[in-house]
Description:
The complex is a heterotrimer of chains A (554), B (319) and C (318).
Chain A: H1 2-15, E1 27-32, H2 47-56, E2 61-63, E3 69-71, E4 85-89, E5 95-102, H3 117-128, H4 138-141, E6 143-148, E7 153-158, H5 176-179, H6 191-194, H7 196-199, E8 211-217, E9 221-226, E10 239-244, H8 248-257, E11 262-263, H9 271-280, E12 285-300, H10 305-308, H11 310-319, H12 322-330, H13 359-368, E13 373-375, E14 378-380, E15 388-392, H14 398-413, E16 417-420, H15 425-432, E17 441-447, H16 455-458, H17 481-492, H18 496-513, E18 516-529, E19 532-533, E20 552-553
Parallel strand pairs in A: 1-10, 1-11, 15-16, 15-17
Antiparallel strand pairs in A: 2-3, 4-5, 5-7, 6-7, 8-9, 9-10, 12-17, 12-18, 13-14, 19-20
Helix pairs in contact in A: 11-13, 17-18
Chain B: H1 14-18, H2 25-35, H3 37-54, H4 56-63, H5 94-130, H6 132-147, H7 150-159, H8 169-172, H9 177-206, H10 209-216, H11 221-257, H12 269-276, H13 285-312
Helix pairs in contact in B: 2-13, 3-5, 3-13, 4-5, 5-6, 5-9, 5-11, 6-9, 7-9, 9-11, 10-11, 11-12, 11-13, 12-13
Chain C: H1 2-29, H2 34-41, H3 47-57, H4 63-75, H5 89-124, H6 129-142, H7 146-160, H8 178-212, H9 215-222, H10 227-257, H11 259-265, H12 270-279, H13 283-311
Helix pairs in contact in C: 1-13, 5-6, 5-8, 5-10, 5-13, 6-8, 7-8, 7-11, 8-10, 10-12, 10-13, 11-12, 12-13
Amino acid sequence: MRYLATGVLAASLALTGAAFAQQKAGELTVAMTQFPSTLNPHIDSMLAKTIVLHMTQRPLTTYNEKWEAICLLCTELPTIENGKAKPVDLPDGKKGVKVTYTIHPNAKWGDGTPVTTKDVIFTYEVGKNPDTGVANMEQFREIVSIEAHDDKSFTVTKDKLKFTYNLMNDFRLIPEHIEKANFDPKNAAEYKKKTAFDTNTTNPGLFFGPYKIAEIVTSSHVSFVPNPTWFGDKAKFNRITFKVIENTAAMEANLLSGSVDYIMGELGVTIDQAIAFQKRQADKYNYDFKPGLVYEHIDLNLDNPLLKDKRVRQALLYAINREQIVQQLFEGKQPVAHTNINPLDWIYHKDVKTYRHDAKRAGELLDAAGFNVMKDGYRHNAAGDRLRFELMTTAGNRSRELVQQVLQSQWKAVGVEIVIKNEPARVFFGETTKERKYTGMALFAWISSPENVPLTILSSKHIPTKENNWAGQNYTGYKNPEMDKLLEEIEVELDRNKRLALWTKFQAIYSEDLPVLPLFFRAEPFIVPKWLKGIVPTGHQYGTTMWSQNWAAN
Amino acid sequence: MATVISPETSIRSADDAALPPPTRPALLIWRRFRRHKGALIGAGVLIFLALLAIFAPAIAGWRGQDHEAVNLFNRFQPASAEHPLGTDDLGRDLLLRLIYGGRISLFVGLVTAVLTASIGTVIGLISGWYGGRVDAFLMRFCDGWISLPLLPVLIVLAAVDPTKVGLPAAIAKSPDLSLYRIVLIIALVAWTTSARLVRGVTLTLKTRDFVQAAVAQGASTARILFVHILPNALSPILVAATLASGNIILLESTLSFLGLGIQPPVASWGNILTNAQEIIWSQPMQAIYPGVLIFATVISLNFVGDGLQDAFDPRTEGR
Amino acid sequence: MTRFLSLRFLQALIVVLVMSFVVYGLIGLMPGDPIDIMLSGDPNMTAADAARLRALYGVDKPIIERYFEWLRNAVGGDFGYSRQHNQPVLHILLPRLVNTLYLMMGAFLISVIVAIPAGVYAARHPRSLVDQAINLFCFAGISVPVFFLALLLIILFAVQLGILPASGTRTVGAQSSFTDQLRYLALPVLTLTIANIAQVTRYVRSGMIEVLREDYIRTARAKGADENRVVWKHALRNALIPTVTIMALECGTLLSGALITETMFAYLGMGKLIFDSILANDYNVALVGLLFACSVTLLLNLIADVLYAALDPRISYR
């Protein structure tokens, strides 16, 4: 036994001989919880993919950290005012728009080939082909045609004049000179197996951003090195590695052990973990809790006879103390939501109806709704029905389960019984919410972009049914003709002031009707070492990696 | 084979052991068990934990606390007279949570272990005794079963609407549904170990003289299996069952880790421990208490298993 | 013996075939397909998009039809593409398999090397101080959930002592050397070993105690046979019978069952791959991975049975 112990000790000492990876000059290792399944810009849709891709290339346009629309690959944002966008009448009588973009003159793929309109046309061809396997077809479907004027400028004709007419935020280019050989329009289904983004990922010709991919190991890590052909500010790191660590407790240990330097908020540790971490490691790191467009809320199944009654919905919201939850569980870092509009969004209406915790008011509303008989500590109506709901969410998400238990306790205090019934994410999102199988309440989040029109979430045309193949995201089954009309008006209102008035009306209806119970906006905790500069959280789905050229060691 | 010592001369049958009983067998077993200090302590610990679990509601009533009532202004309180172990992440008394958690964890561990051992024993006996095609079929069934992935089965079951498969509404609507589901799943998955074990012992025993003699005397198969073979197979079954019940308590925590375990607000040692992993740096005691309880239970189970093994074994020497 | 072996091979083949169907069915039964998951993530997808993607990924056909199509191709040596990674299945699977083999072999060898002497020693000196120490260590090992054990080891060796890497399979960006890989293997192997060693030690010990009480051992001792010879030759041989069974089973489950260890250490092994593939409806990868694990289990059981016969002369195969 003794020899064995000595042997083990000797072996472990030998293994530790190699110096442990400390922060090496010019290198950065970042932790993230998820690995992208494919890197092709248009196949599949996944947050991890866009985060990785934005290191290496840029869409035409995006929202910046101030939530303003800007140009990235184009030279100037086309508007009707500057004449680069023109409303047109389409042959079928619809009102469309022609938008002209110019690609940055110095944009070159990593192998030296210039980025040109050929790539734009090719991307459009790949994207609109129904067999390619593009997840988000909408951005290609709304395009009537693309016309190239020369190598760098082109005009897009869209079939509807929306206020977002000049945005092409998800239009990420595919290099024609590489991918043309892999894409056969007659057999587009084969493209996803052939695409160089997955078969030859380190080909520099696939990227034109500040960094290019030097090494990739599926499910483990991606390494980036500077791309010399990048037209913007030079990349500051010799090497950046994104390492996947799914377990957030292990991720924290990795940060402390120095095997990763920085935890990105978009795919990082949970907020309570970050808050606790900050208390212990206040001096070593900078912390940024960016409240963003991740809207945690409870969908109510409005087909449930109890929830059909607006008074019951309002009472439910009065009965819970969201300020207290946010203060005690999240140290006030996640702002309470009054509607789905974030207070940081310019369309936010500050005088919107709010529901501060008011148990008395909740009780009165429930009495008025007929639930005035207290039995076994819970409310019943005259017919003997108990005021009882199932509250579901994704199982194993600790933060949500904490919130859930607090809500259960607070509702119990006004006589509402809550039964918690959680499911694995894939059942919850794959079936329960989508096929509207939840009977009462479903707690989850929507992630969106600034001034997003929630047409598919609130319009009565988007209630998923078996007949429409479960399309649409109006899981609550909310039907309000006024809301339907409003959503369509907002989408095509180009005048900001008029639109603001419409948004104000929208928030008034939303907060009065309460098709969902708003909880709070989730904050993404960024844990940044003191020596790392240039990380600017955006709070929306177009994250920090879009500006990775600014990341620098101090 | 090289074994020179002839095993035939050494065999005692179960009947031999039972022949001159000095007192009633139960008493004899108890006397032998009593000699095993570890087993006695283990049994004491288990009984204590079980009593706590059984009387959990009474304890809650006596202390005037509710193990599910959230108090957000009382989170992570240090130990005090009111909260001997402090409070958890939602301001609930940790001691009371642990006592209630014991209800679930011990229930899952014991019930599932008994279920598992029973299924495994019956299949193992049949397989080992009949041999041939029956054995081949059962053992290959067993092999296939072992490689069956546990998680998709759990996910499928999680999605099945319990009222549709004929469960009464009282169970289907009960918050304990996830508990029954877990017991069922683990029992269905874990029986293979004891089945293979019992089969192995049966294979060995069936060639022995006392079994052959019983066959020659025309004893029924059931009698041979349960009277002659089972008692001799008991000690490996017991060892396997005690180890299994510990494993099952652990498996429950693993399921919590994967988000497929017991659901809140119901407490189990497994989910208290899993929830503590993210706060292990700031609140290590939240993990240590349930960890110690699991540890104590598993150790006690194993010592008791040891003691039982000795006690049931007629050859145990007196010391 | 030849007849016995060929029969068992045939049986194993049938089991693998049946299993392939069962697993296919199980994954198919899970609610929600990959398109559903995409739908809930993307507000702009329409019913037509969903139908188009379903057809594209072939999930619109009935499950039986898809299974037989898969089987035809698999028998022809074509295991298809991973839906998730858009790469051939073996391309994804093989490196993972190699990693897992390292992990498995490491844990298995250390377990056996430590467990057999420890178990035998404990059995020869029951209730001695050493026996109790071994017992306690075993119990400690099995009474800590793996995820927790892994976390503790990371905290101890990577954070506090800073001598071993916290996660990964090898150093990123460096030329992969054997010592480098060993350093990354150390903690996951340690975790698996601690979790498994207890089982083996316990079985060796209880088997050994059992055998040492047998009269033929006493007879041998009485006749003055060399004690070491009695213990290591005659007794151990018989005591190993239940142990062999357990170890064969353990090994099979290690292949696909190291999921938690792999997750905690971000180690690229089969367990995590199979788990992720099942959750992502990546049939091709999940099936091949599981069937491989299943085949290994069957093979190991076969070896265990043959060892049975070799170890115990009373068992024979007709």
